[in-house]
Design a protein that fits this description.
It is a single chain. By secondary structure, this protein is of the alpha/beta class. Helix content is about 40%, strand content about 15%. It has 20 helices and 12 strands. The strands form 2 sheets. A 10-stranded mixed beta sheet has the order 1-2-3-5-4-6-7-10-11-12, with helices on both faces. A two-stranded antiparallel ribbon has the order 8-9. Strand 10, helix 19 and strand 11 form a beta-alpha-beta unit. It is globular, with a radius of gyration of 22 Å.
Length: about 525
């Protein structure tokens, strides 16, 4: 449920788009199953880890784990693990395992990029880095842990074209969407076994974490999870409560919904994303044209007109080394980039600037940012999409009948007018998933027996709505809810009040009062980064 974030969160893409907007880029151009799951046999204790240096203060290793824990001596699969050593080893507390979300985001890649991720949700503070070895494990089927592959390079390239219609639920006709789903799922089986695909469930990921814990020689672990990582954490705490020292869950998923019917789940995501887009519209209108000139006082109408115009006549984008591969920016791409940018109030100035540029015939900023949306709540043709889908399908209970999907699509479009078309039919791949996981664990993830968890939620989160955090706090046997005001997905690392609370929880095991609210550090504004020449 996580994607690469805008503003500083977009890293190089943000810088490239800003260069374009300021005229400094040489390439700017153109206009439930109710089962509690099978009880696994005892997995053999893993051997101690032999680390190899793989970067500044980074060590890497590959560990083999059972593909199925009900068959501990059967097929073994590799997991990529990375460690960032505590910078103050004399005061080291232990190992902190984290999952940055997705599903599909490689934790090792995230850990390697931490020095360049200041101000990004999920970025650990110097105080936490000093006291813990940070452990990143790419979940099975993700990154260096035998990443799932379902599409050929040509199929992925074709999917990234301009064949989506933002006015049509799902972006294409239903027969075409069904053909696409068949091609995708057939490709998954061609590239890996059904047994491996069926093993990608979160309960197995949690068991994998315990294998890593054992290999590290740790009696207990500290855990931080972001977005989908908040499914992994409660799963681990439920299966291995005596192994949890402290746990922080940031931008939490309602785990009861995650293992239930995927259609209402996706509907909640669409509505949450629509709300953040509407928040941008409202703020732009309230700030007035002197601050936000896009739309001359009516940004919603101007945005809809821009999407229609781009869909009718896409803007040509010239290739620029280090900035964009070139291509076309159509309405569907502009809508997706806008949806992602609107989901983080820190990116609102960039969004305003990019929309103004597109209005003036320069689509490169929006196109560059569209290329940077690596994981989305809804299908996008990116390298992480295969793993993202495979993990969800291993966990989700998705209706197989098309009528249920058609009803859900109609509801999504009615309640989320712009984003609903993106959410429509987005679970079709799971509806025909060829590797059902019949013994996945779906009982309530209560974490009974663990210390109280700190649950951190944004008031307006584009992916994990606030009521999911409230539900998680009720589901967990013991939890404290901390709310951050403002728009954005993930809070730790980007809000000083939240940072202090999370650091205290991770390091000292202390929590704020349940229901505490953190204000935003900087008020949201839609003022463009670059003055409009109008």
């Amino acid at each position: 449920m996580t994607w690469l974030r805008p503003s500083p969160r977009y890293g190089a893409a943000f810088a490239a788009a800003l260069l374009v907007l300021t005229g400094c880029s040489s390439g700017a151009s153109g206009p439930r199953s109710t089962s509690a799951g099978a009880t696994p046999a005892s997995a053999p204790s893993p051997d101690p880890l032999t680390w190899s240096t793989c970067g500044k203060n980074l060590e890497c290793v590959t560990i083999k784990v059972p593909q199925e824990y009900t068959e501990p001596d059967g097929t073994q699969i590799p997991l990529a693990v990375m460690r960032h050593r505590a910078t103050d080893p004399g005061r080291r507390i232990g190992s902190l395992i984290f999952n940055p979300g997705g599903p599909g985001v490689p934790a090792t890649e995230t850990l390697r990029n931490l020095p360049r991720a200041a101000g990004t949700p999920g970025a650990f503070s110097p105080a936490v880095l000093a006291r813990f070895d940070i452990i990143a494990m790419d979940p099975r089927g993700v990154g260096g842990s035998q990443a799932v592959r379902c599409l050929t390079d040509k199929q992925r390239s074709d999917a990234a074209g301009t064949a989506f219609d933002p006015a049509v639920p799902g972006g294409r006709t239903l027969p075409r969407l069904l053909r696409d789903a068949a091609a995708f799922t057939d490709g998954c089986i061609r590239h890996q076994s059904k047994e491996f695909l069926a093993s990608l469930s979160t309960d197995n990921v949690a068991r994998d974490i315990d294998q890593v814990r054992s290999a590290l020689g740790e009696n207990k672990i500290t855990y931080y999870g972001l977005s989908y990582g908040t499914v992994v954490g409660p799963m681990y705490a439920t299966l291995f409560p005596h192994r949890v020292r402290q746990m922080v869950l940031d931008a939490p998923v309602d785990t009861n919904q995650w293992f239930g019917n995927s259609l209402p789940f996706q509907h909640d995501v669409a509505v949450a994303s629509e709300r953040t887009l509407n928040a941008w519209f409202k703020t732009c209108h309230t700030e007035g044209t002197a601050v936000c000139p896009f739309g001359a006082g009516d940004p919603q109408a101007a945005f809809d007109e821009l999407i229609d115009t781009l869909e009718a006549k896409p803007l040509k984008i010239a290739p620029a080394k280090g900035t964009t591969p070139g291509g076309e920016l159509d309405g569907a791409m502009a809508l997706e980039a806008t949806r992602a940018l609107a989901g983080d109030q820190h990116a609102w100035p960039l969004l305003t600037s990019a929309l103004l540029a597109a209005e003036d015939g320069n689509g490169t900023p929006l196109y560059t940012l569209w290329n940077s949306v690596t994981v989305s709540p809804f299908p996008v043709p990116t390298a992480m999409f295969e793993a993202h889908t495979a993990v969800r399908c291993a966990d989700w209970h998705t209706p197989s009948g098309i009528a249920a999907h058609r009803t859900a699509a109609t509801k999504a479009v009615a309640e989320a007018r712009r984003v609903g078309t993106r959410a429509a039919y987005s679970a079709l791949n799971c509806a025909r998933w060829p590797a059902p996981n019949k013994d996945r664990l779906t009982k309530p993830l209560t974490g009974a027996g663990t210390p109280p968890a700190l649950v951190v939620a944004g008031r307006l989160d584009p992916v994990t709505p606030h009521h999911w955090a409230e539900n998680m706090t009720r589901t967990l046997d013991s939890a404290v809810l901390l709310t951050r005001e403002g728009v954005g997905h993930g809070s730790y690392g980007s809000n000083s009040c939240v940072d202090s609370a999370v650091d205290a929880a991770l390091i000292h095991g202390t929590h704020p009062a349940d229901g505490t609210v953190c204000e935003t550090d900087t008020p949201a504004t839609t003022r463009p980064l670059v003055s409009a020449n109008r």
